[in-house]
Amino acid sequence: MSARDWIEKDFYAELGVPPDAPGEDIKKAYRKLARELHPDANPGDAKAEARFKSVSEAYGVLSDTDKRKQYDEARRLFGSGGFRPGGGGFGGGSGSGGFDFGDLFGGASSSAQAGGSGGIGDILGGLFGRRGGQAAGASRAQRGKDVETEVRIDFTEAVRGATVSLRLSSPATCGTCGGNGARPGTAPRTCTTCAGAGVVSRSQGAFAFSEPCRDCRGSGRIVDDPCGECGGDGVSTRTRSLTVRIPAGVDDGQRIRLAGQGEPGRNGAPAGDLFVRVHVAPHELFGRNGDDITVTIPCTFPELVLGTTLTVPTLEGKVSVRVPAGTTSGRTLRVRGKGVARKDGTFGDLLVTLQVAVPSTVDEQARAALEAYAAATADFDPRPALTALLGRDEP
């Protein structure tokens, strides 16, 4: 990206967020726009595709803490009129609108003394591929950006693991030119203006500084006959299909990393990574607590008082659970090995919570039986602690 791009493009406006927006707001805005503008949602709409690329470019800068800091600093310094990247020169003399020479050469003076880095030299270094004011050439290798996508699976797939197919539209190495940007049968040539360095030196009175080469836009190469697919960028938006293995026991919101499946690298550098964020749909019956699966089973009062054997569902089928006599409502029984698979090959448990189901109405026969039971157990106090407390309060 050239200096003019950094100064003139308003990435915050592209995403519709203020300059002081936190990272989470930037991510939310990007996801909303990406869904609306995605080529799959707008087939054949060139305007939407161009807007999708612009939004992705803006997010690529603002989602990276270092790049965002460099972008904000470049706009603050260069966009204020104190420095004109297109025509050179400094405005405002030594007044309030001028440029501080100490800042300009901070990387060569104060940083050399203090062993640190600072000033505009570092900003330009971060933007245009050099550090400490020394031109290293914009044609150096650069790792591709990481990409994130989302996938939704059901509860059973999260517990057992699953294989899902993804269809992604994202920047990828141009398949026509192989990434060099030139039409097949031709090749880029070295820029004669900068001799392939990507930067040129300019003089301003007694001072000299470097800036990206205008002829090659900092790439160090010139493509005379651009590739018809990517327009000379070497990268094009392509739709691709991937098969992703979701491991057993994945949690809701967990990210799975696929190395080398992100955006392609530049000049032979490795590609970025693809991160797949997993969303797990809730189950109508089962819940989850870490590696344990939870389920609530309604019971009748006699079943808990007298004891019984219940048939309880699991993800694999069903099991029999013995309920001891005198079991209280709300008690949880543990069934070993019927939970979530762990990385070490073991399994969590199934936690069965028993809950008394109370009928909303009873007939005369049932009422008579309940009244007889109440009379037979009149000496039983279900609230001894409360009774003792109320007894102490009596005069």
TrEMBL record:
Keyword vocabulary terms for this entry: Chaperone, Cytoplasm, DNA replication, Metal-binding, Repeat, Stress response, Zinc, Zinc-finger
Domain J positions: 10-75
CXXCXGXG motif repeat start and end residues: 174-181, 191-198, 213-220, 227-234
Gene Ontology cellular component terms for the protein in this record: cytoplasm
One function term, GO molecular function aspect: ATP binding
GO BP terms in the entry: DNA replication; protein refolding; response to heat
Residue sites binding Zn(2+) 1 per the record: 174, 177, 227, 230
Stored InterPro entries: DnaJ, DnaJ_C, DnaJ_domain, HSP40/DnaJ_pept-bd, HSP_DnaJ_Cys-rich_dom, HSP_DnaJ_Cys-rich_dom_sf, J_dom_sf
CR-type domain residues: 161-239
Chief place of localization: cytoplasm
SMART domains: DnaJ
NCBIfam families, alphabetized: DnaJ_bact (TIGR02349), PRK10767.1 (NF008035), PRK14279.1 (NF010872)
Name under which the protein is recorded: Chaperone protein DnaJ
Protein source organism: Crossiella cryophila
